[in-house]
Specification:
mainly alpha, single chain, 181 residues
Length: 181
């Protein structure tokens, strides 16, 4: 009878391996975003926590922690973060959902590598859906017609400003398909 050896991989080792795995497959910005969100989970559970010890209860505690108001400034030097002068915020539901999605991706990788038998990161994605303001959506549709966007992209008099806007739009995660992009 074969006994499956339990993995002694730590959360940090898993996330580092997942980062290296994703690095060649996705854009650098996407890979960094994945790693940043995974670091939030890593800070919560501890870098040396073994992945086999992560449970659904850990995920529930992580979600609760994300909803707490606290200093989220990475440059804050206050020893006691609860007494710092920074603005206290909690993560938006959609941000929490994105963090969970990215952590779940790493644990799916761990399942594929047989480091764990099942993915402990289970959650209802609908619970973390971004709320869409219908009035804002209607206004965006009114302004961002294909004709308006094409006119903006083809406007030659303000080439510097157009290039600047295209760069801003690109880094916001939008793709623009033009002949000179």
């Amino acid at each position: 009878m074969l006994h499956k050896k339990k993995s002694t991989k730590t959360v940090k080792e898993l996330f580092d391996a997942h980062f290296e795995h994703k690095r060649g497959d996705t854009k650098d910005r996407s890979t960094r975003s994945y790693r940043d969100d995974q670091r939030a989970f890593e800070r919560f559970v501890g870098s040396n926590e073994q992945i086999k010890n992560i449970s659904k209860g850990t995920v529930i505690d992580f979600i609760s922690d994300c909803k707490k108001q606290r200093c989220r400034n990475p440059r804050c030097t206050a020893v006691d973060k609860s007494k710092c002068k920074c603005k206290k915020t909690s993560y938006a539901k959609s941000t929490i959902g994105l963090k969970l999605k990215r952590v779940r991706s790493a644990f799916t990788y761990a399942v594929d590598k047989q480091w764990v038998t099942e993915n402990p990161i289970q959650y209802d994605a609908k619970q973390f859906k971004q709320k869409v303001d219908p009035a804002k959506q209607k206004e965006q549709a009114r302004i961002l017609t294909p004709e308006n966007v094409q006119q903006f992209l083809n406007h030659q008099e303000a080439d510097y400003e157009r290039q600047l806007w295209k760069t801003v739009i690109y880094y916001l995660g939008c793709l623009l398909y033009t002949s000179d992009a």
